[in-house]
Amino acid sequence: MRHFVAVAEELHFGRAARRLHMAQPPLSQSIRRLELDLGVDLFDRSRRGVELTAAGKVFLTEARRTLAQADLTRKLTQREAMQVPEIRVSFVGAALYRILPDMIARYRTTRPDVHIRLFERSSVDQIAGLKAGDFDIGFVTVAGAGGLDFCETLVVERTRSVAAIPADWPVAQQSSITPIELSELPFIAPPQRYAQSSALYTAFSNAGVMPHVTQETMQTNTAISLVSAGLGVSMVPATASLMQPRNVRFMPISGLEPEPASELTMMWHPQQVGARGEEFVAFTRQFLAEKPHLLDPDAPL
After folding, report:
1. For the segment 91-141, what is each residue's pLDDT rounded down to a tens digit?
2. Is the model's pLDDT at 266 over the cut of 90?
3. How many CB atoms lie within 10 A of CB 292?
4. pTM for the complete prediction?
5. In terms of Cα–Cα distance, which of 117, 140, 133, 107 is closest to 267?
6. What dotted CATH number matches 84-301?
7. 266-289: string of b/e by CB count within 10 Å (b at 16+)?
8. Is the dihedral of CA 284, 289, 290, 293 positive or negative?
9. Is 95 within 8 Å of 264 (Cβ atoms)?
10. Contact residues for 175 (Cβ-Cβ < 8 A; gap 6+)
11. DSSP labels for 9-23?
């Protein structure tokens, strides 16, 4: 199947053989044996090149699914055989502003025997990683994620959204900023295909203006770095102010309805999270019960 997928994606036996680090004749023989076993032709071979047959297109979809499941099975099996128990936690940068460091520190006091491996990834990359079994727990911003129907989720933090402005810009001397003023400044935002349904664009649309996006980034930390460099303004979680970045002023936004808020969501695949992951979920629920201010966007930081 791996040989078939390589040829199907390259549509060229020579390139597929190089990709698989093998000679072309054994690859051709492997594909021919597969076709004989199935009793169908998977490829149309001609002087013009190689193309998938209708049966080959169906087999490609199923082969990819089968190989993904095989890889997942290998990962889960190896994980269970590890002598040192671990939880693999992926997160967006915004999770580091307040909640995640406290959670990890608290968890380690209760389970010092469990090793926590951390991976900073975009929300989109975390979705793929959770599906593939690369991560046990993910912390995502739902607006940048999408495709959460396969997993269970828990909102772990709510905070107001604020404007991040270069501190050396004249507008940063104001006590607040309006949507109209923001729309006249170069704006740093997530790619529109991820953010167009988010609170960002909804709030601006309700105000009758739209931001003038000049830079795009999926990561809040990157957006703040670009603001620090004077390349534009952005809308970020108010918790970002706890990091005290250089040359960045965080300002409330007046006149936006609904008032923009930011949510951080924990997610996990119920069939793949494992016993230690389930334990971490239970710990998180208790952690939130003890800290209700984390879910109150108007609570002091």
Report:
1. 999 999 999 999 999 999 999 888 898 999 988 889 889 988 889 999 998
2. yes
3. 9
4. 0.71
5. 140
6. 3.40.190.290
7. bbbbeebbbebbebbbeebeebbe
8. positive
9. yes
10. 251, 252
11. HHS-HHHHHHHHTS-
Q: How far apart are CA 117 and CA 114, in angstroms?
A: 10
Q: How far apart are CA 33 and CA 249, in angstroms?
A: 65
Q: Domain map of the chain by residue range? A: 2-80, 84-301
CB 152 within 8 A of CB 270: yes
Rounded Cα–Cα distance for residues 136 and 278 (Å):
9
Instruction: Report the number of secondary-structure helices (H) and strands (E) in the chain.
Output: 11, 11
119 closest CA partner among 92, 140, 142: 92
Q: How confident is the model over 167-215, as pLDDT tens digits?
A: 999 999 999 999 889 989 999 988 877 655 566 777 788 888 888 899 9
Give the end-to-end CA distance of the chain in Å, rounded to a whole number: 53
Q: Using only the alpha carbons of the chain, give its radius of gyration.
A: 24
Distances (CA, A) of 125 to 56, 219, 242: 29, 12, 26
Beta strands 152-166 and 233-237: pairing type? antiparallel
Helices 24-38 and 2-10: angle between axes, nearest 10 degrees: 110
Q: CA neighbours within 13 Å on the CB side: how many for 35?
A: 17
CATH number of 2-80: 1.10.10.10
Which residues are CB-contacts of 210 (< 8 A; sequence separation ≥ 6)? 183, 201, 204
The predicted structure's pLDDT at residue 284 = 96
Q: What length does the chain have?
A: 301
Q: Which residue has the tokens 């990834």?
A: 121
